[in-house]
Amino acid sequence: MKSPAKDSKPKKKRKEKLNDYVAWFEIPAYEINRAVEFYNHVYDLSLQIQDMAGYNMAIFPTNDGIGGAIVMGEGAIPSDKGSLVYLNGGKDLDVYLNRVPEAGGRIILKKTLISKEHGYFALFIDSEGNKMAFHSKK
To answer: Could you give the C-alpha distances from 110 to 94, 105, 114, in angstroms and in order?
Structure first.
């Protein structure tokens, strides 16, 4: 039997290159119906509430993009601190931002230029007390 060569090097593992670093997001809610009504109004959607493993969830529609949901259940606690989710503001985030107060939320930073290259953002508090953001190129 041959023994392995003493000078053989272990094979290097191939580094995976990722295109996106967010795979899924969840927006916590105290009251799922109120939260769904808020996002339905802001985005002109008809999200449906589903029971999934003891959690109530309303999943945002996606076409090969990043998926996410509104979620109510144990450990899903709305907050205006911590991680900040930037939602798609379409071509002009003002379209959606202007619906925030109508839906029961509050704008805390109006549409603001990041740079010509990176576009605009705005901050708001949703119906559940979550600090959220919109982003758009224009």
So the answer is: 9, 13, 12
Distance of alpha carbon 122 from alpha carbon 73, whole angstroms: 28
**Tens of pLDDT, residues 48-63:** 999 999 999 999 999 9
Taking the C-alpha atoms of residue 100 and residue 43, their distance in angstroms, rounded to an integer, is 10
Per the CB < 8 A criterion, the answer to whether 135 and 121 are in contact is: yes
Return d(Cα 102, Cα 39) in angstroms, integer. Answer: 11
113/69 Cα distance (integer angstroms): 27
Domains in the chain: ranges and CATH: 24-136 (3.10.180.10)
Q: pTM value?
A: 0.86
